[in-house]
């Protein structure tokens, strides 16, 4: 497994979590979310619908992030996640 770095200040860099074990994915994604500057984001690439992640983000950071599907499977899911500008 390779370590993946996402440029947290580049708008919509790719964050492909498919090669990570499921137990590590949310921690990785929340680490990236925590580093995002307002108006920046990333494209989450996953092998299933990350809807439970959306609910977790909303529960912990209500209204702070945008969530826009770009591709809805069946093999690949892409979601643009961004920190809303203040």
Short recap of the structure:
The chain is of the alpha+beta class and 86 residues long.
What are the defining features of this structure?
globular, alpha+beta, 28% helix, 2 helices, single chain, 86 residues, disordered N terminus, 4-stranded mixed sheet
Helical residue percent? 25-40%
> What summary fits the major beta sheet?
4 strands, mixed
Instruction: Tell me what portion of residues adopts beta-strand conformation.
Output: 25-35%
Distance between the termini: 36 Å
Estimate the global geometry from the Cα principal axes: globular
Q: How are the strands of the biggest sheet laid out side by side?
A: 1-2-4-3
Question: How would the blueprint of this fold be written?
Answer:
Layout: E1 13-16, H1 22-35, E2 41-46, H2 51-60, E3 65-72, E4 77-83
Parallel strand pairs: 1-2
Antiparallel strand pairs: 2-4, 3-4
How does this structure look, described?
By secondary structure, this protein is α+β, with helices and mostly antiparallel strands. The chain has one domain (13-76). Helix content is 28%, strand content 29%. The chain is built from two helices and four strands. The chain has helices at residues 22-35, 51-60, and strands spanning 13-16, 41-46, 65-72, 77-83. A four-stranded mixed sheet has the order 1-2-4-3, covered by helices on one side. The termini are far apart. Residues 1-10 have low confidence and may be disordered.
